[in-house]
Amino acid sequence: MQHLTLFTLALTLIATICLAKSPYQSVLQHSRIRGRQHGPNVCAMQKIQGTDKKYFTNCKQWYHRKICGKPTVISYECCPGYEKLPGDKGCPAALPLVNIYNTLGVVGAATTKMYSERAQLREEIEGPGSFTFFAPSNQAWAALPTEILDALVSNVNIELLNALHYHMVNRRLTSEDLKHGSAFPSMYQDFNVHIHHYPNGIVTVNCARLVKTDQHATNGIVHIVDRVITAITNNVHTFIDTDDDLETLRTAVAAAGLTQMLESDGHYTVFAPTNEAFEKIPPEMLNRILGDPVALRDLLNYHILKNMQCAESITSGTPLETLQGTVLEVGCDGTDMTLNGKAIVQKKDQLGTNGVIHYINELLIPDSAKTLLELAQGSAVTTATKLFVDAGLGSHLSGSEALTLLTPQNEAFKEGVAMTGELKKLLKNHILKEKLSSRLLYHRQELETLGGIKLRVLVYRNSLCIENSCIAAHDKTGRFGSMFTVDKVLTPPMGTIMDVLKADDRFSLLVGAIQTAGMTELMNQAGPHTVFALTNDAFSALPKADLNKLMGNPQELASVLKYHMAKEILVSGGVGSHTRLKPLQGDQLELNMRNQTVYINKVPVVEADLMATNGVVHAWIVPFVNGIYSYLEQKKKKGSLIDLILSKMVNVNINPALDEDRDGIYFSEICCIIAFIYQRPKI
Questions:
Q1: What pLDDT score does 641 carry?
Q2: Which residue range or ranges hold the EMI domain (predicted)?
């Protein structure tokens, strides 16, 4: 029965909200549903603790119990247009339908009613007509600066009357008529009042929030607002042009050619950096941007939103698109307005005829206005950034060359890494000779570095790699170059697979085996190949007599080695939770990645990603069982001891004292099994 009740409530909630005509009505209806258990026409309200600010509640706020990051308490009040009756539950009675003057007294606007009488407006709002009155709440008048209030009440017949007339429109406007971006001529010299109706249900007039709407009267309608509004006569550029605190911004706007745009019609939001904000930027960087029209335009457009966003419309962090093309997260923390999580807004809601200005004390610099060095310095790749500078590559990263920087994460470097000639050469190969986007890279594409070598692009299902280094974060696109953050220090290919094996003493026995099997040419071919290279330790684990027997049969030896080789290139970054690889001979190999280690058939690789021009080598100390015994399997009898042991090898019970990984095969135990097999009587 309880489940049925919840289901019915959910259906009712969805149906009523879907039938709502506007975002405000959706929120109001949600508040009605949340409050109906307290009686008819009761709305649930959320009040921010420690303040007088109340909101009708939406689903998200209801469950989070937070607005602007601050906890809220729930209260239940009469919905707009209704009142309580003694002895009755809820708010069953509609408010008496009286004129606007008398309505002000019963909807929380007694101060507006008092000032209306003092300004001799009473007769007008008691008489015939059809008006809309955006009436400031009692708290709104109390919050008005003393000097402004004194100026109004000292000249009630002109200043106060004009101010009140600006809150009035000579027609009836319900909340449904208050469309986003609309403007209506007020009763003060026809100066417009500007309406914004946001997706979260907030409705503002000149950036003042409507806290109670649709209070009907015989001669119009009353909407209660949370502040006293003033007439708007200037566009946003006029603010910038006349405020000495925005002098640097004014110069920048003119240099970027944005003056005409900020003077034209629109609904802009400008986060205006003060002179102080510009002074915080290193002079060299600031002068470079101010002297570069493209970077300067990007910088300024990053401070301008495509739509008008009043401070009161923000109840949580919201990503909003800028004219520069990227987004800013506009949010709030209590009474503070935030940008990208920082409370840097000093002054809010300076309203113009074509938008709103919020003053900020910190300059927002988009990636598109930065050099490669500045991109790196602003990211969490401090070790690589310092090394690039120490290697003498700062001039490339600070200049105007079209480059792409491959920047390894801090964890990719050993602690206390020191600059050497070899490291300088390696870092130079982390800089590509063109500005790239990772979205346009394709498999087997070749990229040339400043060091003059070619790097391969490797595309896998869940990763995009350049040689052994896989991209670990979204691209950062700067003024002249791009930066890819990668998970490893790049290992450029320095020869064929055979060259790699010959250069490493760990593979001396394998090199001899390859030559014996007649596979040298294969290891030098264009490929691509992935080789699981047996180390000398792997060969040493085999009894000498049987190893000699295997080495004396080139055909069988070649078969065994081909179980350790695939005709594609697979680096460790391309290995997922269940990756399969078909070797040149035998069944598919099962690969997975655990704790940054590649496992093949549940056995860990010793060292991954030894890059070659025709593929990649992974160092391996345990030979694949089905490879070593491929020639024996042709001779073994069904049900023999070998058959039993081979079938059970992957299920060896591991001693936890020897190996923490119970699913793996511990090397010493494998060696014991191999030795046991080789000591068996001949079949």
A1: 37
A2: 39-93
The Cα–Cα gap between 136 and 110 comes to 9
Other beta carbons less than 10 A from residue 553's beta carbon: 14
Q: Tokens standing for 432?
A: 């590509």
DSSP characters for 549-561?
HHHT-HHHHHHHH
Amino acid at 442: Y
Q: State how far the Cα of 236 lies from the Cα of 194, in Å rounded to an integer.
A: 14
Neighbours of 39 (CB within 10 A): 15
Map out the domains of the chain with their CATH numbers.
23-83 (no CATH), 95-225 (2.30.180.10), 236-368 (2.30.180.10), 370-486 (2.30.180.10), 497-633 (2.30.180.10)
Q: Does residue 42 contact residue 75 with C-beta atoms inside 8 Å?
A: no
Rounded distance, CA 370 to CA 247, Å?
23
Would you state the structure tokens that stand for residue 504, as one six-digit string?
A: 């490493």
Q: Are 149 and 230 in contact (CB under 8 A)?
A: no
Torsion of CA 61, 64, 70, 71, to 10 degrees: 100
SS3 369: helix
pLDDT tens for 180-192 read 999 999 999 999 9
Whether the CB-CB separation of 405 and 431 falls below 8 Å is answered with yes
pLDDT at 447: 97
Distance in angstroms (rounded) separating the CA atoms of residues 108 and 98 = 15
Between CA 135 and CA 137 the distance in angstroms is 6
Look up residue 110 and give its amino acid.
A
Distance CA 226, CA 140 (A): 5
Q: Which of 162, 170, 166, 172 is nearest to 120 (CA)?
A: 162
Q: Indicate the residue type of 303.
A: H
Q: What is the pLDDT of residue 52?
A: 87
Dist. CA 531–CA 516, nearest whole Å: 17
What is the C-alpha separation between 505 and 324, in angstroms, rounded?
55
User: Would you call 375 helix, strand, or coil by DSSP?
Assistant: helix
Query: For residues 427 and 405, is the Cβ–Cβ distance under 8 A?
Result: no
Phi, psi of 427 (to 5 degrees): -65, -35
In angstroms, the CA 210 to CA 273 distance is: 29
Using an 8 Å Cβ cutoff, are 530 and 566 in contact? yes
CA pair distance 231, 638, nearest whole angstrom: 97
Contact 267, 307 (CB under 8 A): yes
Low-confidence ranges of the chain (pLDDT < 50): 1, 4, 6-7, 9-11, 13-18, 625-683
Question: What is the CB neighbour count within 10 angstroms for residue 8?
Answer: 10
Largest interatomic CA distance in the chain: 119
Which stretches within 604-640 are classed as H helix? 625-628, 630-633
Tokens of 30: 């949600």
Q: How many CB atoms lie within 10 A of CB 254?
A: 12
* Pair of tokens at residue 517: 């099997």
Cβ atoms within 10 Å of 245's Cβ, excluding its own: 14
- Tell me, what's the pLDDT at 645? 40
Peptide bond into 528 cis (omega under 30): yes
Q: Does an H or E element contain 607, and which?
A: strand 607-612
The pLDDT tens digits for 625-661 are 444 443 344 334 333 333 444 444 444 433 333 343 4
Q: Is 531 helix (H, G, I), strand (E, B) or coil?
A: strand
Confirm if 141 and 108 have CB atoms less than 8 A apart.
no
Give burial (CB, 10 Å; 0-12/13-18/19+) of 123: exposed
Label each residue of 119-188 as H, E or C: CCCHHHHHCCCCEEEEEECHHHHHHCCHHHHHHHHCCHHHHHHHHHHHCEECCCCCHHHCCCCCEEEECC
pLDDT (0 to 100) of residue 627: 42
